[in-house]
Amino acid sequence: MFISSKTSAAALTAMALATVGCSNENYRGQSVASANTEATVMVGGAAMYPSRNIIENAVNSNDHTTLVAAVKAAGLVETLSGPGPFTVFAPTNDAFAKLPAGTVDTLLKPENKTALAGVLTYHVVPGRVTAGELVKMIGNGGGMAKLTTVNGATLTAKMMNGNVVLVDAKGGTATVTQADVMQSNGVIHVTNAVSIPG
Description:
Low-confidence stretches: 1-35
CATH topology: FAS1 domain
Shape: globular
Number of strands: 10
Distance between the termini: 20 Å
């Protein structure tokens, strides 16, 4: 089963050039001052507020400093701060550290901005997909779900040992270690590996 975007091709292209929840209807209009009354979850030692967007929350996670630096270098801050909604599979610092030596430093160079954006948008699926919805899709898909990413390439989701696992175009796997971190413009799912597009 594919998750298709209702976003125009032009908008998806802009996103490429420029993570599994409930509707955020209950959070619209809340001020930052009221954030302390929200139900939050902890990610990387920081509270994640459902009334804040993906970027506003991610910058506070000590486990996602590499991802945030990459998003900034790729010019994707404005996109991921936008209305979305987006489902982001968010690799931790440890996940980036598993890449071959020098990979992250090379991708962060200005001349590799397009390649970096391609890798990052491979971790973003248009729409808001909760873990429960993803598990249901996997079951209905005969044991796997095909996810069309903003990159345009496909991630395959399946169940392994009771966890949602993403299989990338190169056959690498990333396990969702923390699901359903709600955002005002989508949802984040923390992963333990970086998914690589073909």
